[in-house]
Please model this.
Amino acid sequence: MLLTTNAQDHTGSTSAAELVIARDGGYVYTSNRGDNALVVFSAAQRTGLLTEVQRVFCGGVTPWSMCLRSSGRWLFVANEASSTVNLFRVHPRSGRLTDTDPLLEFRG
Model:
């Protein structure tokens, strides 16, 4: 099965990038640099089959790197072109993300 990180109506460049798996394997978080999106997939426990749960704006431009805290409750996203790091709250039961606004902005 082929999955995409692109929105159905996306016509610009595509560039799937970072992939982070929750410690329990229940959720997979991906970034797409082409449309500045984060995509959350749930992973079926028995089969590993992925199902899209959510697609959100990364909070900046060109999501380059991501880090999921060991608690599984916070996802940090470094956005290269906007020089920002955004912090997302991870809902423990759904894996869904909530942006908490830019955590850091780098100037220079």
User: Anything to note?
Assistant: The CA atoms of residues 38 and 82 lie 16 Å apart. The mean pLDDT is 88.
